[in-house]
Write a structure and sequence with these properties.
The structure holds two protein chains of two kinds.
Chain A lengths: L4 H22 L6 E3 L14 E13 L5 E7 L6 E2 L6 E2 L4 E5 L4 E5 L5 E8 L2 E10 L3 E8 L2 E6 L8 E7 L4 E8 L21 E11 L2 E10 L12 E7 L5 E7 L14 E3 L5 E5 L16 E5 L14 H4 L4 E7 L4 E7 L21 E7 L4 E4 L14 E4 L2 E7 L4 E7 L4 E8 L3 E13 L2
Parallel strand pairs in A: 4-28
Antiparallel strand pairs in A: 1-2, 2-3, 2-29, 3-5, 6-7, 7-8, 8-9, 10-11, 11-12, 12-13, 14-15, 15-16, 16-17, 18-19, 19-20, 21-22, 22-23, 23-24, 25-26, 26-27, 27-28
Chain B lengths: L1 H15 L7 E8 L9 E4 L5 E3 L5 E5 L4 E9 L2 E10 L4 E3 L2 E3 L6 H7 L3 H7 L4 E5 L10 H5 L5 E5 L7 E5 L2 E2 L4 E4 L2 E2 L17 E8 L13 E7 L6 E9 L3 E11 L5 E12 L4 E4 L2 E3 L4 E4 L4 E4 L5 E13 L6 E14 L18 E17 H4 L1 E18 L3 E3 L5 E3 L13 E21 L2 E18 L3 H6 L4 E16 L4 E18 L8 E20 L2 E12 L3 H5 L5 E2 L7 E12 L2 E2 L2 E23 L2 E23 L3 E19 L2 E4 L6 E12 L7 E11 L2 E2 L14 E2 L2 E12 L4 E8 L18 E10 L1
Parallel strand pairs in B: 1-7, 1-8, 13-16, 36-40
Antiparallel strand pairs in B: 1-4, 2-3, 2-5, 5-6, 9-15, 10-11, 11-12, 13-14, 15-16, 17-18, 17-49, 18-19, 19-24, 20-23, 21-22, 24-25, 25-26, 26-27, 27-30, 28-29, 30-31, 31-32, 32-33, 33-34, 34-35, 35-37, 37-39, 38-39, 39-40, 40-41, 41-42, 41-43, 43-44, 44-47, 45-46, 47-48, 48-49
The chains are: A mainly beta, B mainly beta.
Chain lengths: 446, 788
C-alpha cells in the first residue's frame, strides 16, 4: 500500500478529469471506463482509438485452516460483492500488497521474503517477475513507474539495515547500501544481545519516502533484545539519506510527538500537493507501543524543501478528537486526510489490539482530519474496525476506499473528505480485505 | 505420581490373585509361525473330554481323572498331532502343540484358516489386520505396509525418517492412536515410529477404524493402530540387512531364546537405520548478491538434498518367563533408542524452497524400561489379565543456531543478521527433558461361554522441562515442569449368540485429563500459570452378524481426544503454542460387510466399509508462515467408503485391490453455497497389487514371489478448493500414479531370504505433504537370515 500521493497524483488527475468528461457525456458518474478523444492528424493513417481503463483488485484473506490469500479481481469497490471464488491469484503465504503506478507488487511477510510483480497485460492481471531478499523488508515506496525503494531491518540484534533500489520493470535490485543510523549500541559491541546490551535499541523503520533529492525513513526505537518493547518512544524520528546515492545525511527528531506510524503499516510519511510531508504518531499501545508513550498522538510536518520538522505545525490529535489515537492516516486533497483512530485504555490488555482484523470487540473508528484548520470529524456511521497490518485503502481524489472489518463484517467504505461523508461500498467475501488496489492502462477501443 | 502408585498396587494385586488349578492339562496350540489357533480342538483320545483353544491359542482341560492319555490336537487345514501324557491327581500339566499346515490346504490358510488375524477380523470392530509374514523379507517399513490398507493414506515429507502423517478415514495425525504391543506409541517419540520399524521385527499390524476396543486404552478420535512385535515363544534368530538408493542402510536383529523346561525367556529386538536421503529435486535457484537480494532462475536445476541425513537405532532387551504356570508372559525390559534427523527444508512450507536449511537438526535419546505381565485362564479359565508399566526418560534437542545462509550446493554465506536462525528471525537451541510413566491394567472375565466382561484402566503421566539459551520464549515456557496426566477407565460387555454368529459388544470409557503448565509471550518476559482439569465420557458398541459367507458389521463410538503437549505448548520451533485448545470430540459410525464366496472355484474376499466421522472442536494445524499453530475447528464431517478385494487363483496368483473415497467437509466454510472440502487432503486413492508365487523354483524348499503394485492418488487442492482462479497458478497437488515392484527369493525353508524392491519404477514426481517432492525411483536390496 505504498500509495504515495505525489507520485500518483498525475494518475489520479487523469482519472478524475477523465471521469468528469465521461460524467458530462453519459451521465454515468460511476463508470470506470474513460474515453479519450483522439486527434487524427494524419490523413491516411488512422491511429486506433484508445481509452484509459481502470481495473480494481483486492487482496483477500479467506478461510481458516488454512487461511489463504487471493489477489482478486474486483468489478467495483462501490457495490456488489468482491469474491475470490474462482477468481484471482492464490498467494503462497501471508502477504503485503504494494500499489505501484503500473504494477502491483506482493511481498511475503517474514518467512517468504519474495517480491512479485503483477501487471495488466492484454486486459488481464498477469503475474510477472520476482526477486528475493534474505532480510525482511518493513517499508517500501515507489519513486516512479520503474523504481521502488525498500528497507529491511532486524527485529532483534543490531544487524545492518539494508536499503535497496529496485528496477520494477526488470524486478531486479540495482543498488543497495547498509545503514545503522539511529541505533543505540550501549557497549559498542554491535550485536545487541547479551551482557551489557540490555539497553541497545534498533532504529526500526515504519515508512520510507523519496522527495526530490532525499530519501526519508521514519523509524522508532525498539529493544534489540527481541521483546518488541519501545522504551524510548517520546520522539518522532526521521532519518534522511540522499537519493539516489543513499548516503546518510542526518537524523531529525521532534519531541512534541512520539514514534511515527507503527509496525508493518507501510504508511507514515504522507506527501500533499505542495510537497509537504505529514507524519502521524499513534502513541498507542493498541498500535504496538509498550510502554504507552507519554506524548499525545499527534501530526507533524516537514515542509517542502526542508530537512527539519516544521516548528510552526503541530496538531495534538488526541486533544482535538477527544482522546482518540491515530492508527493510520491517508492524505486526500485540499489539506484533508482520512484517519483511523483508537480509543484505548492504556493497559497491557490492549497491546497489539489494532492488529486483530476479525476481532469481536474492534477498537478503530474512522474520521476526517483537516490539516489546515486542525479539526477532526468523526464518521460514526462507519463500523468499528479490528485493524490489521497495512490498512486496505485506495485513494481517488478526495475519496478514500477503505477496507472495514471485524468479527461480523467485512467490506469497503467510501470516505469523501470534501463532502465529509462515508457510504458503504462493496462487500468482501472472505475474512477481510488486506488491500484495495487499482491499475489503469491505456487500451485500444474495439 | 500418585497414579503411578495406584498402578503399581494394581500390579501387585494381579500377582496375588495367582492361584494354582487342580488336575488340569493346559497349553497352547500354534502354527509353525507361532500364530495362535483359535478354535483348534484338543481331545483326550477315546474319551469325550476336550477343549477348544481361545484366541490366544490357549486351551485348558480341567478335572482330568488320573491315567494315561493320548492328546490329539487338530484344526481344519492342519495335520492332527498326538502327544502322550501321564496324569497324576492334583497336578497340572502343560502340553503345547505346533500344528503343520497341510500343503494342499494353503488357500484355506491364507483366506479361511483362523489365524490371529482372522480372529480379529471377525470381531465386530471395523478392523483390518496385516500379518507381516508376507512382508518380512521385504525392505519395507511399517508405513509402506499400512499405506496399502484401504482407508489409510500416509503422507511423508521426504525420504527415510522424515515426518509423516497417517490419515485413517479422514482423521489423521494424533487423532489416530498408535500402539506398540498395546502401549501408546507417541510416548516413544520420534525414534520409534512406524517408518523406522523394519518389517521383520513385526508380527502383525491391527488397524481399528473409528471404534477402538477398550484394551487399547487412550484417548483416540478416529481409531487406533496396534503394532504387534514378534510374540513368538520359540527360540529363533532373525537378522537382516538392507541397502538402498540415497545412501540407505537398514539392519535389524531380532533374537529370542526360551528354555522349554523353565520357560525362561530372553529377547532382543534391535534395529539400525541410516540414510543420506540425498535425492535430487528440481529447484529454481536464487542468485543472491552481497546484500542478500537475488533473482530466481527461470529454469530448474536438479540439485541434491545435502542436509537431510537420518540415523536411528534401537536396542530392546527383555527377559523373564513365558508360557509358565504362573504367567503367559512376565517380562522386564530396557530399551535405548536414539534419533538424529537433519532438516533440509521447512516442514510445513508449500513446495520445494529456493533457500534450503544447512544446519537445522533434531535429535532425541530415550531410555525406556518396561515390565509386562500377562496370564490367561485364571479361575477355571475365566479370567485373563494383561498389564504393563513403562517408564520413559527422554532428551530432545532442537537446533537452529547457524549464522549462515546455505544454497542448494551446500555453499554458505554469513548472514547480515547474526541473531537470526535459518528458520526464524531468532535462533533456537531447545533441550527438553521428558519423564513419562505409563501403566495399564486389563482384566477380562468370562461369565459363561457366551458372555464376557472386561475392565481396563490406563494411566499416562508426562512431565516436560527444558532450556533454550537463545530463545527466551522457550526458556520461559519450559523453565518449570509442565505436567500432563491422562487416565482412562473403561468397561465392556460382550455377548455372543446363535452359535457365535451374532456378537455384540457395548463399552463405556471415562477419561480424565489434567494439565499444569504456563503461558508466556514472544519475548518470554511474561508468565501466566495454566491449569486445566477435564473429564469426559465416551461410549459405543460394535455388532456383527454372520450369515454363511456374508458377515455384517456395525459399530459406533463417541470418541474424545485431548490435545497433546506439543499442540498446547508448541515444540519451540515449528509449532506455536495455544494452551486454550479444547479436546476434540467425534461421533464415529461404521457400517460394512465382508463377503467370502468362491469365484470360479477360487477364494474371493470382498470387504466394504462405509463410515461417518462427525467431529467437533477439531484440532488442526494452521499454517502461519513457515510455522503452525494448532487450533480448534468448529465442525468437520467426513463421510467415506473403503473397499478391499482379494482374489487368489490356484494358489499362485494373488490380487489385492484397495480403494478409498473420502468426502471431508468443513461445516463452517461455505464456498459456492456448499460446505467446503477440507483442503490439502487426498480424497480418492487406492492401489492394486498382483503377486505371483512359485515354490520350488530351482530346488526343493526354495520359494519365489514377485509383486507389482500400482498406486493412485487423485489430484487435490493444497488450499481451499475454488478459491482463486485455478488457471492462475493455484496450488494443486497433481494426480499421482506410481508403480512399485518387489522380488523375493528364499532358500532352505526361508532360512536365507533375498529381496529386491523398486519403488516408483517410472521415476514419477511424487508429492506429498505441502507439495514437497519425495524421492524418485528408489532401489533396495535386502538379505534376511532366519533360523528357528
Amino acid at each position: 500500500m505504498i500509495l504515495k500521493q505525489l507520485n500518483l497524483l498525475p494518475f489520479f488527475m487523469v482519472l478524475v478529469f477523465g471521469t468528469a468528461v465521461v460524467s458530462c457525456s453519459d451521465d454515468d458518474s460511476e463508470s470506470d471506463v474513460l474515453q479519450e478523444e483522439q486527434v487524427e492528424e494524419e490523413e491516411e493513417e488512422i491511429e486506433p482509438e484508445t481509452q484509459l481503463v481502470t481495473r480494481y483488485f483486492s487482496g483477500i484473506e479467506f478461510g481458516s485452516d488454512p487461511t489463504v490469500e487471493i489477489l482478486t479481481n474486483a468489478d467495483s469497490f462501490e457495490e456488489g460483492v468482491i469474491s475470490p471464488v474462482d477468481n484471482g491469484f492464490e498467494q503462497p503465504a501471508w502477504m503485503a500488497y504494494l500499489q505501484g503506478e503500473d504494477q502491483i507488487i506482493t511481498l511475503g511477510y517474514n518467512t517468504a521474503p519474495e517480491f512479485t510483480s503483477y501487471e495488466v497485460v492484454d486486459g488481464a492481471l498477469t503475474k510477472g517477475n520476482s526477486f528475493f531478499t534474505t532480510d525482511d523488508a518493513y517499508a517500501a515506496t515507489f519513486v516512479d513507474a520503474s523504481t521502488m525503494v525498500f528497507i529491511t531491518s532486524p527485529r532483534s540484534g543490531l544487524a545492518d539495515k539494508i536499503i535497496s533500489i529496485v528496477d520494477t520493470d526488470a524486478m531486479e535490485v540495482t543498488y543497495s547500501i547498509t545503514t545503522t543510523a539511529g541505533y543505540v549500541d550501549v557497549d559498542g559491541d554491535g550485536d545487541g544481545l547479551g551482557e551489557g546490551d540490555e539497553n541497545d535499541l534498533i532504529a526500526f523503520p515504519s515508512d520510507i519516502h523519496v522527495r526530490g533529492d532525499y530519501l526519508y525513513v521514519s523509524y522508532y526505537m525498539m529493544s534489540a533484545s527481541g521483546t518488541f518493547s519501545t522504551p524510548d518512544a517520546n520522539k518522532a524520528r526521521v532519518g534522511i539519506y540522499t537519493y539516489p546515492g543513499l548516503e546518510f545525511v542526518k537524523v531529525i527528531e521532534d519531541d512534541r510527538a512520539s514514534n511515527i506510524s507503527r509496525y508493518y503499516a507501510f504508511n507514515g510519511l504522507l506527501e500533499d500537493e505542495n510537497g509537504d510531508i505529514y507524519t502521524f504518531s499513534p502513541s498507542s499501545i493498541a498500535s504496538g507501543y509498550a510502554p504507552v508513550p507519554e506524548n499525545n498522538s499527534a501530526i507533524l510536518r516537514i515542509k517542502n524543501g526542508e530537512t527539519e520538522f516544521d516548528d510552526d505545525f503541530y496538531i495534538d490529535f488526541e486533544s482535538i478528537s477527544g482522546g482518540l489515537k491515530i492508527n493510520d492516516m491517508f492524505y486526500t486533497t485540499n489539506g484533508k486526510a482520512v484517519v483511523r483512530a483508537t480509543f484505548e485504555e492504556e493497559s497491557e490488555l490492549y497491546l497489539w489490539g489494532n492488529y486483530a482484523p476479525t476481532l469481536a470487540t474492534p477498537l478503530i473508528s474512522t474520521g476526517i482530519v483537516d490539516l489546515t484548520t486542525g479539526t477532526f470529524t468523526l464518521l460514526d456511521n462507519v463500523p468499528l474496525c479490528g485493524g490489521g497490518w497495512n490498512s486496505p485503502h485506495m485513494i481517488d481524489g478526495s475519496k478514500v476506499y477503505l477496507g472495514v472489518n471485524n468479527a461480523e463484517y467485512s467490506g469497503v467504505y467510501i470516505i469523501d473528505t470534501e463532502t465529509g461523508t462515508a457510504t458503504e461500498g462493496a462487500d468482501i467475501d472472505g475474512n477481510y480485505a488486506k488491500a484495495l488496489l487499482s491499475l489503469t492502462t491505456e487500451e485500444v477501443v474495439e | 505420581m500418585k497414579y503411578f502408585v495406584v498402578a503399581t498396587l494394581l500390579y501387585c494385586i494381579c500377582f496375588s490373585n495367582l492361584r494354582a488349578q487342580e488336575t488340569s492339562i493346559s497349553g497352547t496350540i500354534t502354527t509353525e509361525n507361532d500364530e495362535p489357533m483359535l478354535g483348534a480342538s484338543v481331545i483326550l483320545a477315546k474319551t469325550t473330554i476336550g477343549a477348544v483353544a481361545d484366541e490366544n491359542g490357549r486351551y485348558i482341560i480341567e478335572n482330568v481323572p488320573a491315567g494315561n492319555y493320548t492328546l490329539i490336537a487338530s484344526s481344519i487345514g492342519f495335520g492332527a498331532q498326538r502327544k502322550s501324557v501321564v496324569v497324576d491327581s492334583g497336578q497340572n500339566y502343560t502340553v503345547d502343540f505346533v500344528l503343520n499346515e497341510q500343503v494342499e490346504a494353503l488357500n484355506e490358510v491364507v483366506l479361511q484358516g483362523k489365524t490371529k488375524a482372522t480372529v480379529l477380523r471377525e470381531k465386530a470392530y471395523a478392523v483390518e489386520v496385516v500379518e507381516m509374514k508376507e512382508f518380512k523379507n521385504l525392505a519395507t517399513n511399517g508405513n509402506d505396509i499400512l499405506a496399502k490398507i484401504s482407508g489409510i493414506n500416509i503422507r511423508q515429507s521426504g525420504g527415510v525418517g522424515s515426518d509423516f502423517t497417517l490419515s485413517l478415514n479422514g482423521l489423521s495425525g494424533n487423532q489416530v492412536r498408535m500402539f506398540l504391543d498395546g502401549i501408546p506409541m507417541d510416548y516413544f517419540g520420534s525414534s520409534l515410529t512406524l517408518n523406522n520399524f523394519s518389517a521383520n521385527l513385526l508380527e502383525r499390524i491391527e488397524v481399528y477404524k473409528g471404534v477402538v476396543p477398550i484394551h487399547l486404552s487412550s484417548d483416540a478420535l478416529g481409531g487406533a493402530i496396534n503394532i504387534v512385535t514378534d510374540q513368538s515363544t520359540n527360540s529363533f534368530l532373525d537378522a537382516s540387512y538392507a541397502t538402498g538408493s540415497f545412501g540407505t542402510h537398514i539392519a535389524s536383529l531380532n533374537a529370542h531364546y526360551r528354555s522349554k523346561k523353565s520357560g525362561f525367556t530372553a529377547k532382543l529386538t534391535s534395529f539400525y537405520n541410516y540414510s543420506d536421503n540425498n535425492y535430487e529435486v528440481p529447484i529454481r535457484l536464487i542468485n543472491f548478491d552481497e546484500f542478500g537480494n537475488g533473482t530466481q532462475d527461470d529454469f530448474y536445476t536438479d540439485v541434491e538434498h545435502f542436509h537431510d541425513a537420518y540415523e536411528s537405532k534401537m536396542f530392546w532387551a527383555q527377559t523373564g518367563f513365558t508360557k509358565t504356570t504362573f504367567a503367559d508372559q512376565l517380562l522386564i525390559g530396557a530399551m535405548y533408542s536414539d534419533n538424529y534427523d537433519e532438516v533440509q527444508q521447512p516442514v510445513f512450507a508449500a513446495g520445494e524452497p529456493a533457500v534450503p536449511y544447512g544446519e537445522v537438526l533434531e535429535e532425541e535419546q530415550k531410555l525406556i524400561t518396561n515390565l509386562s505381565y500377562r496370564k490367561s485362564g485364571l479361575f477355571n479359565n475365566k479370567l485373563n489379565l494383561d498389564t504393563y508399566l513403562v517408564a520413559v526418560f527422554a532428551e530432545n534437542t532442537t537446533r537452529d543456531i547457524s549464522d549462515y545462509q546455505y544454497d542448494w550446493f551446500g555453499n554458505r554465506r554469513l548472514r547480515n543478521n547474526p541473531v537470526e536462525g535459518e528458520i526464524e528471525t531468532r535462533k533456537t537451541l531447545l533441550i527438553l527433558d521428558t519423564d513419562n510413566y505409563l501403566g495399564r491394567f486389563n482384566a477380562e472375565y468370562n461369565l459363561n461361554d457366551n458372555n464376557n466382561i472386561a475392565f481396563n484402566y490406563s494411566l499416562n503421566d508426562l512431565t516436560v522441562q527444558g532450556t533454550d539459551e537463545y530463545k527466551e520464549e522457550n526458556n520461559t515456557q519450559f523453565r518449570f515442569p509442565s505436567d500432563v496426566t491422562k487416565q482412562v477407565m473403561a468397561f465392556s460387555y460382550t455377548n455372543s449368540s446363535y452359535e457365535e454368529k451374532f456378537k455384540n459388544t457395548v463399552f463405556g470409557k471415562y477419561y480424565e485429563y489434567r494439565i499444569t503448565s504456563l503461558e508466556t509471550n514472544f519475548s518470554g518476559d511474561e508468565i501466566l500459570p495454566f491449569k486445566s482439569n477435564r473429564d469426559y465420557l465416551g461410549y459405543g458398541f460394535s455388532s456383527t452378524f454372520a450369515i454363511e459367507k456374508l458377515q455384517l458389521k456395525a459399530s459406533y463410538e463417541r470418541a474424545t481426544r485431548f490435545p497433546e503437549f506439543f499442540e498446547l505448548f508448541g515444540d519451540g520451533l515449528n509449532i506455536e503454542s495455544n494452551p486454550a485448545l479444547l479436546p476434540e470430540e467425534s461421533n464415529n459410525y461404521n457400517l460394512g460387510f465382508i463377503y467370502r464366496p468362491q469365484l470360479f472355484n477360487n477364494p474371493f474376499i470382498l470387504s466394504v466399509n462405509g463410515y461417518i466421522r462427525d467431529s467437533e472442536n477439531f484440532i488442526i494445524p494452521i499454517a502461519i508462515g513457515l510455522k503452525t499453530r494448532y487450533e480448534n475447528y468448529v465442525s468437520v464431517t467426513a463421510r467415506g467408503i473403503d473397499l478391499s478385494a482379494n482374489y487368489i487363483i490356484d494358489n499362485k496368483l494373488f490380487f489385492v485391490l484397495n480403494g478409498t473415497f473420502l468426502d471431508k467437509r468443513d461445516n463452517d466454510v461455505i464456498i459456492n453455497g456448499e460446505k467446503a472440502r477440507v483442503p490439502n487432503e487426498p480424497y480418492l486413492f487406492g492401489n492394486l497389487s498382483a503377486t505371483y508365487r512359485k515354490p520350488e523354483l530351482f530346488k526343493t524348499n526354495d520359494n519365489f514371489a514377485a509383486t507389482i503394485t500400482q498406486n493412485f492418488t487423485h489430484e487435490f487442492p493444497y488450499r481451499w478448493e475454488d478459491i482463486g482462479d485455478a488457471d492462475l497458478g493455484k496450488a494443486i497437488v497433481p494426480e499421482q500414479w506410481t508403480t512399485n515392484m518387489e522380488l523375493v527369493y528364499s532358500l532352505d525353508n526361508e532360512k536365507y531370504n533375498f529381496s529386491l524392491g523398486v519403488i516408483n519404477i517410472w521415476d514419477r514426481e511424487v508429492f506429498d505433504n505441502f507439495q514437497q517432492l519425495r524421492p524418485g525411483r528408489t532401489f533396495n536390496f535386502k538379505l534376511r537370515y532366519f533360523i528357528n
